[in-house]
């Protein structure tokens, strides 16, 4: 395994703020002894290709510089099609200079300053990864996979409100509530009975937060070998809006009609593709399963 550290910088993250700030932050890390090389991406999907090629060359230590979407691409370069078979866990640090910073909250990193301190120390913690199988192949997730309301609101956020950060997601939630639906997503949890109950949303979580500080799965642990399944059953628009603020405290899971459970694998029986929100990125997929890959990665913590 190579001793090289490579920073994958998404200069477009955070509305272009990442590109302006990354050089100073990386220089500070080099001054503290972290020997970082730098690769700047040129567009969507470029980080996946760059990381995959570097991993094939033996590089196993990366820093994703950007938002949750940048980390998502780096992870899919590490584990997606064409990636090497790892004999020891690759290492990922994240420098949150983009719009969202949800995943790192489980690793006591809330801002750029705490991320820089963690990267300078280079202490790591084992972390699970979610593998989503679908008609197009496989996609990997660090944070969560959501279908239903969250995916619809996520698509709207990316289309209209992304520049506003967490506030933009709140606006998208309000607008999506006006057309509230509770579709059926047939599934089986850990090989159990087929579940055909309607749901406003289903969220399959590796870590606690989404869209910044929203605690979608308040009891999730990204190193426990399980995903947390959050189901929100049918309710009125008014009841949904009234319940929404509780997600910031993680108390929504105590409300009637909201279920919290754990699983190692979820299998789907869907008739067609649908919008799926994966680590803040919306993809049109027909997922067939989501399963936990335990301790697949080391996260700088």
Any idea how many domains? Answer: 2
What is the global morphology?
globular
Task: Briefly note the structural class of the backbone.
Answer: alpha+beta
Ends apart, CA distance between termini: 21 Å
**How many extended strands?**
15
Q: What's the helix-strand series?
A: EHEHEHEHEEEHHEEEHEEEEE
**In what range is the share of β-strand residues?**
25-35%
Oligomer: single chain
Roughly how many Å is the radius of gyration?
19 Å
Per the CATH scheme, the topology name of the largest domain is Tumour Suppressor Smad4
**What is the name of the CATH architecture of the largest domain?**
Sandwich
Helical content stands at: 25-40%
- Please describe the biggest sheet, giving its number of strands, its sense, and whether it closes into a barrel: 9 strands, mixed
**Helix count from the secondary structure assignment:** 7
Protein model, in words:
With 301 residues, the protein is of the alpha+beta class. It folds into 2 domains: 5-122, Rossmann fold (3-Layer(aba) Sandwich), CATH 3.40.50.10330; 141-295, Tumour Suppressor Smad4, CATH 2.60.200.40. Helix content is 27%, strand content 30%. It has 7 helices and 15 strands. The chain has helices spanning 17-31, 46-56, 68-79, 112-121, 149-161, 166-177, 237-243, and strands at 5-9, 36-40, 61-66, 91-96, 124-134, 137-141, 144-148, 187-189, 201-205, 227-232, 258-263, 265-268, 274-278, 281-285, 287-300. The strands form 2 sheets. Strands 1, 2, 3, 4, 5, 6, 8, 12 and 15 form a 9-stranded mixed sheet that branches. Strands 11-10-9-7-13-14 form a 6-stranded antiparallel sheet, with helices on one face. α2 (46-56) packs across α3 (68-79) and α5 packs across α6 (166-177). The longest helix is centred in the first third of the chain and has 15 residues, at 17-31. The protein is globular, with a radius of gyration of 19 Å.
């Amino acid at each position: 395994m190579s001793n090289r550290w490579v920073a994958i910088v998404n200069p477009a993250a955070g509305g272009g703020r990442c590109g302006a700030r990354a050089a100073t932050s990386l220089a500070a890390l080099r001054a503290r002894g972290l020997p970082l090389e730098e690769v700047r991406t040129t567009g969507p999907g470029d980080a996946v290709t760059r990381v995959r090629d570097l991993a094939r060359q033996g590089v196993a230590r990366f820093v994703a510089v950007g938002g949750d979407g940048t980390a998502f691409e780096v992870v899919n370069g590490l584990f997606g099609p064409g990636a090497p078979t790892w004999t020891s866990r690759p290492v990922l640090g994240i420098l949150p200079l983009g719009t969202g910073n949800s995943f790192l909250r489980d690793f006591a990193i809330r801002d750029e300053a705490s991320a820089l301190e963690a990267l300078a120390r280079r202490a790591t913690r084992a972390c699970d990864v979610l593998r989503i199988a679908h008609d197009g192949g496989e996609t990997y997730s660090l944070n969560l996979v959501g279908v239903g309301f969250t995916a619809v609101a996520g698509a709207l956020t990316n289309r209209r409100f992304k520049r506003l950060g967490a506030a933009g997601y709140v606006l998208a939630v309000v607008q999506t509530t006006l057309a509230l639906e509770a579709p059926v997503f047939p599934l089986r949890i850990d090989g159990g009975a087929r579940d055909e109950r309607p749901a406003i949303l289903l969220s399959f979580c590796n870590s606690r937060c989404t869209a910044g500080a929203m605690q979608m799965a308040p009891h999730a642990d990204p190193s426990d070998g399980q995903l947390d399944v959050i189901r929100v059953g049918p309710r009125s628009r008014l009841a949904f809006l009234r319940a929404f603020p509780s997600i910031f405290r993680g108390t929504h899971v105590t409300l009637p009609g909201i279920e919290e459970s754990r699983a190692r694998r979820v299998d789907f029986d869907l008739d067609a593709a649908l919008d799926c929100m994966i680590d803040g990125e919306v993809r049109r997929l027909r997922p067939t399963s989501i399963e936990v890959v335990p301790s697949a990665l080391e996260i700088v913590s």
